[in-house]
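Changelog note: in this version the structure field was regenerated for every chain. One regenerated record is shown below for reference.
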Amino acid sequence: MYCPYLYGAQSELLALRDYAKNHPNDRVLSPIIEPTKANVSNLATCLRQLSSNGILASVVLNPGQDELSSSQAQRTWYQNFSHQLTAFVDYIPAYKTNAAIGYADIDLFLNAYPAGAVVIHASSHLSLGNFQSVDQDARVRWNVVLPGSINPPQRNTLSAHKTIDIEDRFTVQQRNADYGAPEFFSNQFHTYQQYAVGYGDYTVLSTLPPSSGGQPGAVAIHLTYKDSQAGGVWIEHFVSALTQRSQGDVAGKYHDAATQLVSAANSRPAEFGNNPALISYQQQVANIHFPGLPTNKRQQILHHLCLNRQMATGQI
């Protein structure tokens, strides 16, 4: 089971909707969403589509980052979220720990959702006994462990059949122009079943909530692929030749990077696979069409989701 950890940015939510539309009743993907935006409409729309297509997402109900960092913003968000979703929208409630949250707080949350909830471990402050109690609690559907959040003895108390490990695999560079040769990304797909029920990452994004950013000097497209010789998943960076803001325009730079990508994907289908994101890139190159940088991010995320599905189903 592949469980990407996302922050509810529009590009992420649209990628999930694209995936659900193309893979109804999928049993590979189960995303985890930690909301960071005060407006719940886009998230609610995404959850309705995932639910109607038989894909189950986990949603953090005590978010605290970005636009939801204040207590008042969190309360308002939860009220709006509760009002927009009906009983017909199926999702798993999730609770994220931090240093201020004790075992009693977790127990109180689980009491509110006795049918099953997810506990996201983002802090090591709980005792080993508390970790064991959480793990053995029948109300806990899954334990989700964020990277670097707990120590090895605490992780060892969590049962393999109900634990999901999230890894931070994308190396962020300060500038798009700084991305270079292909890099090893992850071997989780091959190894996770030894110690967990699922695995996850932040797709091709940072562990921090996405920011809008400014106009880039270079345009980059980051695509993962299954390496046919080295094994595991690697990531290739397709960067425009023009890297300064004063050079050319963003549309031209995007066409350059996308052309490189399409050439690589077409020549190595056993590594990149075939999916709606790649088809969109191919059409955009053929039509010399610039869809905008947010759509570029959406397609990169969608490709990564589809790649994990194609590996799980043996298509690549």
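Spot check on this record: The radius of gyration is 20 Å. The chain has eleven helices and eleven strands.
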